[in-house]
User: Which sequence fits this backbone?
């Protein structure tokens, strides 16, 4: 999939102007997009080299996003919530690693569901925060 220069510019501007809460939401969206790409790889015929490459690349990209989320947690001021998120991200990363090693779509689906739950909760929190400020 190729992205037009205009779309790249729009995405870059979106990232540059987003607040930290919106950036986290964008990261969740990215992780979900990469997991979906990896899962789509399972629809490619098993004897095609593209199958392995598509699954592998999607998982690696999802891992990179989740590692970014994990690395940017403020464990000092985030308290128990940050610690629990760190453990959850570690679990996601472990399951993605297993999914990649075993080419296990079930593990991918599990992580997808967990990340979707976090994304929905985060979006709801941002919405509540916006309503409170307005």
Assistant:
């Amino acid at each position: 999939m190729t992205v037009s220069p205009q779309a790249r510019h729009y995405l870059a501007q979106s990232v540059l102007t987003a607040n930290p809460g919106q950036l986290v939401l964008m990261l969740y969206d990215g992780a979900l997009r990469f997991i979906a790409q990896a899962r789509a790889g399972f629809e490619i015929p098993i004897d095609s080299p593209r199958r392995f490459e598509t699954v592998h690349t999607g998982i690696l990209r999802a891992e990179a996003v989740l590692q970014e989320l994990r690395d940017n947690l403020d464990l000092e001021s985030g308290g128990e919530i940050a610690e629990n998120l760190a453990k959850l991200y570690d679990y996601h990363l472990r399951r993605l690693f297993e999914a990649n090693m075993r080419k296990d779509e079930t593990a991918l689906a599990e992580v997808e569901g967990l990340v979707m739950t976090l994304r929905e909760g985060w979006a709801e929190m941002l919405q509540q925060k916006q309503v409170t400020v307005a």
